[in-house]
């Protein structure tokens, strides 16, 4: 029997409803609402779509968003100046710098310059350090989305074999950290996993992925995870968003793997919508942190 489809879009919509109430309460108590500054450099069409989706989500939950669009040839200094301005602006609570940045700009330089209390992506080294130490200020958006899907679908990772395929700073590393953590702000079922991280240089990767009770695919290669790499009954979370000639697809060979898995996230309508709503949550968190 084919596995359950974990409907990320429906879960994200439910969280948006909860969040909209929290934002309304915040505005009632504090006058001003949370405000997100979105910075988009260049004209990568996919990035433009992501930023648009984030701004539409802001509208839905009552968060104000301010757009800063810069040309592809923008220099590092110019972007650092904008970040400094946004850091100093008391009306801005969160700063989102959409990645990737053009090649002449060093991403690390820019992300390090974002004020740690406005770092709604949780990319700043201070916030990554706090996360690794088990006392997070913000949870990174996509990894948090993965945890929310698991938790709200009644899937526990505690004591389970979790395999993460991919070791990126945005997904692989932080999701592995969260799954292995001793406790979790999301709930007791979202931590205490036994986590293995695989990547492009892992030898006999399929032998490792086949040990997974919970398999997280975040390697950025279309349909990389095939059915014979998955243990029957595993839960499969597909974080990939790949644009191919035949449309969007994930890192998992969805149709074939669904026949093996007990539960699986689709692409689209899987993890993607959660990433967006977790950014909204972090913007509210940032606004709360800046009250004190
Ligand atoms: N590019 C791809 N994913 C992300 C993300 O989560 N945040 C930002 N800022 N850029 C991205």
UniProtKB/TrEMBL annotation:
Residues 140-289 form the Tetrahydrofolate dehydrogenase/cyclohydrolase NAD(P)-binding domain. One of its GO terms (cellular component) is cytosol. CDD domains: NAD_bind_m-THF_DH_Cyclohyd. InterPro entries: Aminoacid_DH-like_N_sf, NAD(P)-bd_dom_sf, THF_DH/CycHdrlase, THF_DH/CycHdrlase_cat_dom, THF_DH/CycHdrlase_CS, THF_DH/CycHdrlase_NAD-bd_dom. One of its GO terms (molecular function) is methenyltetrahydrofolate cyclohydrolase activity. It catalyses: (6R)-5,10-methenyltetrahydrofolate + H2O = (6R)-10-formyltetrahydrofolate + H(+); (6R)-5,10-methylene-5,6,7,8-tetrahydrofolate + NADP(+) = (6R)-5,10-methenyltetrahydrofolate + NADPH. Residues 6-121 form the Tetrahydrofolate dehydrogenase/cyclohydrolase catalytic domain. Pathway: One-carbon metabolism; tetrahydrofolate interconversion. NADP(+) binds at residues 166-168, 241. One of its GO terms (biological process) is tetrahydrofolate interconversion. It comes from the Bacteria. Pfam families: THF_DHG_CYH (PF00763), THF_DHG_CYH_C (PF02882). Keywords: Amino-acid biosynthesis, Histidine biosynthesis, Hydrolase, Methionine biosynthesis, Multifunctional enzyme, NADP, One-carbon metabolism, Oxidoreductase, Purine biosynthesis. Its EC number is 1.5.1.5, 3.5.4.9. Signal peptide: none annotated. Belongs to the tetrahydrofolate dehydrogenase/cyclohydrolase family. PANTHER family: C-1-TETRAHYDROFOLATE SYNTHASE, CYTOPLASMIC, C-1-TETRAHYDROFOLATE SYNTHASE, CYTOPLASMIC-RELATED. Catalyzes the oxidation of 5,10-methylenetetrahydrofolate to 5,10-methenyltetrahydrofolate and then the hydrolysis of 5,10-methenyltetrahydrofolate to 10-formyltetrahydrofolate. Homodimer. This is Bifunctional protein FolD. The gene is folD.
């Amino acid at each position: 029997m084919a596995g359950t489809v974990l409907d990320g879009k429906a879960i994200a919509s439910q969280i948006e409803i909860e969040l909209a109430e929290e934002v309304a309460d915040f505005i009632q108590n504090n006058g001003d609402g949370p405000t997100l500054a979105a910075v988009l450099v260049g004209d990568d069409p996919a990035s433009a779509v992501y930023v648009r989706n984030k701004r539409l989500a802001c509208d839905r939950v009552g968060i104000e968003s301010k757009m800063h669009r810069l040309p592809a040839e923008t220099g590092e200094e110019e972007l650092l100046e904008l970040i400094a301005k946004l850091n100093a602006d008391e009306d801005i609570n969160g700063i989102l710098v959409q990645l990737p940045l053009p090649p002449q700009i060093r991403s690390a330089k820019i992300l390090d310059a974002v004020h740690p209390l406005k770092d709604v992506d949780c990319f700043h080294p201070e916030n990554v350090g706090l996360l690794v130490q088990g006392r997070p200020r913000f949870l990174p958006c996509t990894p948090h989305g993965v945890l929310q899907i698991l938790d709200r679908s009644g899937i526990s990772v505690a004591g389970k074999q979790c395999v993460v395929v991919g070791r990126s700073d945005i997904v692989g590393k932080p999701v592995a950290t969260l799954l292995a953590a001793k406790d979790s702000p999301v709930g007791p079922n979202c931590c205490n996993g036994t986590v293995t991280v695989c990547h492009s240089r892992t030898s006999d990767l399929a032998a490792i992925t086949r040990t997974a009770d919970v398999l997280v695919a975040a390697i950025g290669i279309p349909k990389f995870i095939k059915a014979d790499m998955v243990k029957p009954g595993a839960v499969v979370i597909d974080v990939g968003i790949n644009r191919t000639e035949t449309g969007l697809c994930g890192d998992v060979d969805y149709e074939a793997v669904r026949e093996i898995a007990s539960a699986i996230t689709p692409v689209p309508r899987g993890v993607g919508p959660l990433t967006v709503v977790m950014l909204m949550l972090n913007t509210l968190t940032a606004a709360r942190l800046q009250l004190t």
